[in-house]
Amino acid sequence: MVTLMLMNSGEFQIYLKSAVESYAKEKVLSNNWNEEESISKAREEYEKLLPKGETTENNFLYSILNEGQTIGAVWLEQKNNENGFIRDIRILEKYQGLGYGKEAMNQIEMMGKKLGLRKIGLHVFGHNKVARGLYEKLGYQTTNVMMIKEI
């Protein structure tokens, strides 16, 4: 069974390094940033959004555990009293495709309810069809679509 546990500072530092690299890669794949600037821009965004790291107010960074083993991470931001936003969710590659993402999403929703949230939003890159499919199956609705074409 999947559970969520708040990250300590050591776990946060490991997460942060991986998250910055992954976010930079996604922004390059989405044609938002060029590769040369991607890491520094990603680092800047994370520093702006999490100025106090894992203790930044209204941000909850969890390790995703299965039977005590860390299998991923999730970052839930409480935007206001009723709305939350999943800033990041990641399941380690060797655990993907085993249903842990769905279980983690259910745990996130339970955490959101405990915080008093009524809605949780998220962003998914358009090229991430697997994640989009999961979120749609869980009842998340598309609210915006941005498109781009190179000319």
State the order of secondary-structure elements, H for helix, E for strand.
EHHEEEHEH
Helix content: 25-40%
CATH top level label: Alpha Beta
Number of beta strands? 5
The third-level CATH topology is: Aminopeptidase
How does CATH name the architecture?
3-Layer(aba) Sandwich
Q: Whole-number average pLDDT?
A: 91
Count of discrete structural domains:
1
CATH superfamily, by name, is: Gcn5-related N-acetyltransferase (GNAT)
Low-confidence stretches: none
Q: How many DSSP H or I helices?
A: 4
In whole angstroms, the N-to-C terminal distance is 48 Å
Coarse morphology? globular
Which structural class do the helices and strands define?
A: alpha+beta
- Which strand order does the major sheet show? 1-2-3-4-5
How would you sum up this structure, described in words?
With 151 residues, the chain is of the alpha+beta class. Helix content is 40%, strand content 24%. Strands 1-2-3-4-5 form a five-stranded mixed β-sheet, sandwiched between helices. Helix 1 packs across helix 2. The longest helix has 21 residues. The radius of gyration is 15 Å and the shape is globular. The protein starts with a strand and ends in a 14-residue tail after the last helix. One of its GO terms (molecular function) is acyltransferase activity, transferring groups other than amino-acyl groups.
Summary tags:
Aminopeptidase, 151 residues, 40% helix, 5-stranded mixed beta sheet, alpha+beta, globular
